[in-house]
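Field reference: sequence -> structure
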Amino acid sequence: MKQEEMIKLGISIGDLNGIGSEIVLKTFDDARMLEFCTPIIFASSKIINFLKKHYKLSLNFQGIDDPSKAIDGKINVVNVWKENVNIRFGEESNEIGSFAFKSLAAATSALKQDKIDVLVTAPINKSTIQSDDFKFPGHTDYLARELGGESLMFMITDNLKVGLLTDHVALKDIASVITPELIVSKINTISKTLKQDFRVQKPKIAVLGINPHSGDNGVIGKEDEETLKPTIQKLRDKGQLVFGPYSADSFFGSKNYKNFDAVVASYHDQGLIPFKTLSFGRGVNFTAGLNKVRTSPDHGTGFDIAGKNEANINSFKEAVFKGIEIFKAREEYRQLTENPLKKQGRKI
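Structure field:
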């Protein structure tokens, strides 16, 4: 992408019965946002017009049939479907889930074809989106299949970054899923993304224990002693600044996380509960490890407040800004690490 070109930011509309459409449209109702990117919403002009009226917004948009026809300085809506959509705010609906998937699939296809630069996903309902085409626990696994790479859920703010060894895995299966190979893969992914996406030259990473008190030297489970500790040591022997395992119950309260560039949690709630407590709606879910940039807000569909004009847009707006920042940082990293002789057309 040329420096002077606007970043094309694709948006999947998520579950239309939730708050996703509200936070998307309210974010870009502020015309100043168009100075940072060219938004391309994958839905339909008909439904966006309905939602605009419902939320009493003044935004103007143009319908297009292909993201390549998006115009800078305007809100663009790719017409992914033509049929009417029966929105019932706050209700779970398989029909609405099918439209969420149509939006996601079209946006992902555009990302793969470089018709958009960044993908920001509005929240889906993980139950109603399930179908023959989508059999995944969430966005992350679907995008890993479509885009390639070692995907990793990476929750980020300016001051706190939390990655997960396991994300949407049942608690009873955690210990058996965490293997030395998985630990190495996830930590290498985090290290790479800190370098290329966040400009951290020598990442310093903390790892939280699997069991309470990191197993207390084997008294409370043997996984930390037999799997986590020796794998961390092997990474350190190779020169990586990886430390732990730390007892998760005191790690965040003691503010120890401030001493590291990223924290690796063993499972979903171990990392996301403290992250969301500390981020206060400013957090962003970034899918690290893919060859494309995808972000999303750090919350779900919000069915309890859907359609009531009460949704907070802060996390979605942060997801937009972080997506733009990461895309630029990755482009900069690519240019800096290209062989300068090859760049000048000279043989090596």
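Note: The first strand starts at residue 8 and ends at 12.
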